[in-house]
User: Which sequence fits this backbone?
């Protein structure tokens, strides 16, 4: 099958729209017609080299679509099923999967990070047979994708594709970090660094959990204002006085919980400074792979602060998908308000330019015509 897809051929290069060959699904795989794919900083990290990966590849991991065909051993999935795509599927049998952390799967993580599907091979190629790598086993910046059956979560038909795509990454990563990893409790104060798609999702998750105060720190005024519109108590512009202001707004103690959605070591350090003794601090943003953070370990002990990493929210995407879909359908999570401009595939470079410039506080979505 011939498909149009965005291809990244080299570091710091623009995405190029190419016609590629897509092989049919094999055992344990399905063919998905992509409906929507979010414009996420994790894809941009491939361009800058902050995330190292085999090239060429088709990016896109925050996706939703409709199954068109199923290969053998695809379980109960069938053509016509609308799905949310999971970029970290579990095998179901390793230690991490049995410990309810399938996003950390010991079996499936290896081939996915090598840029293949789970059997170690690629379904994407150019004329002449040159393989094109997959990203997260999905590669959703394409008209169609062959993906693992384990990556498909069947969604209710009344969940729009744009919202479903955001649940597939930003919302699960952000709201999941608040609800699952940070375990925000009613009445607590929550500090959030960063108000992109993930940070805004943290705000929504913290409010669902009953946080009394949500303080957002951002460099972008537009994003800080968007956070307030979505339920944050205040949006602060990050500067040398931010930590003192956070402490002042929390009775001098500091926040009960801090969640960093930026991945910047400086922001992570300020989360430590702006929280009270006994606080829970969660790092959810992806830094450069070589990034490090110097911490005063005596202070961690004496102040009994907990630092936790949150991968895909809490490590169990299918469980989080189900919870977040239910919260959306009940009206508790107004996820439609996270959706920004819809872009065509041919506009993908403009979409990422908007992301990098932080010129829009909402999540850009690449959408595909139906049928």
Assistant:
């Amino acid at each position: 099958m011939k498909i149009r897809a965005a291809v990244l051929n080299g570091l710091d290069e623009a995405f190029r729209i190419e016609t590629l060959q897509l092989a049919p699904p094999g055992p344990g795989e399905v063919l998905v017609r992509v409906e929507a794919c979010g414009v996420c900083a994790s894809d941009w990290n491939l361009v800058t080299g902050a995330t190292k990966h085999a090239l060429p590849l088709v990016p896109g991991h925050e996706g939703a679509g409709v199954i068109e065909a199923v290969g053998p051993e695809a379980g109960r999935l069938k053509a016509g099923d609308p799905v949310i795509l999971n970029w970290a599927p579990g095998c179901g049998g390793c230690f991490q999967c049995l410990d309810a952390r399938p996003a950390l799967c010991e079996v499936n993580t290896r081939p996915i990070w090598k840029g293949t599907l789970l059997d170690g091979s690629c379904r994407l190629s150019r004329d002449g047979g040159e393989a094109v790598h997959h990203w997260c086993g999905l590669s959703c910046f394409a008209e169609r994708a062959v993906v693992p059956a384990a990556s498909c979560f069947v969604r209710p038909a009344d969940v729009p594709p744009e919202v479903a795509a955001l649940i597939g990454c930003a919302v699960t990563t952000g709201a999941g970090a608040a609800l699952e990893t940070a375990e925000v409790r009613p009445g607590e104060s929550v500090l959030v660094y960063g108000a992109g798609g993930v940070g805004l999702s943290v705000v929504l998750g913290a409010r669902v959990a009953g946080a009394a105060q949500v303080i957002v720190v951002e460099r972008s005024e537009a994003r800080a204002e968007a956070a307030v519109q979505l339920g944050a108590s205040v949006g602060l512009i990050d500067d040398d006085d931010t930590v003192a202001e956070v402490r002042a707004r929390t009775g001098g103690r500091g926040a009960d919980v801090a969640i960093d959605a930026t991945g910047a070591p400086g922001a992570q350090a300020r989360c430590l400074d702006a929280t009270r003794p006994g606080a829970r601090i969660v790092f959810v943003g992806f830094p450069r792979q070589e990034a490090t953070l110097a911490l005063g370990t005596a202070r961690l002990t004496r102040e009994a602060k907990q630092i936790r990493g949150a991968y895909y929210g809490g490590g169990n995407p299918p469980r989080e998908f189900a919870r977040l879909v239910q919260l959306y359908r009940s009206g508790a999570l107004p996820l439609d308000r996270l959706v920004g401009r819809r872009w065509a595939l041919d506009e993908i470079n403009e979409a990422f330019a908007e992301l990098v410039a932080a010129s829009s506080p909402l999540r850009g979505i690449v959408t595909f015509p139906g049928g």
In short: The chain has two domains: 2-168+315-367, 183-309. Residues 183-309 form a domain with the Rossmann fold fold (CATH 3.40.50.720). The CA atoms of residues 55 and 341 lie 28 Å apart. Residues 161-181 form the longest helix (21 residues).
